[in-house]
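Please fill in the sequence for the structure shown.

STRUCTURE ENCODING:
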């Protein structure tokens, strides 16, 4: 999902003409297919991106290799008398 955020940033800043037109068209088509107003599609997309980034950061901290190594060492020490 971080890649989506990067793609959106690149799309908004590097290639503003062609890609912004394509993004607007895709958003319009998505809004029409979901029967929702376009601003609601924009805000919902931003909310979903924020939630996914938050989840990735929390999981990333939990699965950090250094932290896992410390936890395994501590667990191993409790097993060995």
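FILLED IN BY: designer on duty
SEQUENCE:
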């Amino acid at each position: 999902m971080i890649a989506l955020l990067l793609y959106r940033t690149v799309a908004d800043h590097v290639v503003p003409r062609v890609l912004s037109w394509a993004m607007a068209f895709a958003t319009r088509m998505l809004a029409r297919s979901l029967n929702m107003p376009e601003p609601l599609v924009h805000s919902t997309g931003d909310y979903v991106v924020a939630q996914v980034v938050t989840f990735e950061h929390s999981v990333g901290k939990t699965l950090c290799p250094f932290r896992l190594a410390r936890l395994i060492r501590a667990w191993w020490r409790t097993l060995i008398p």
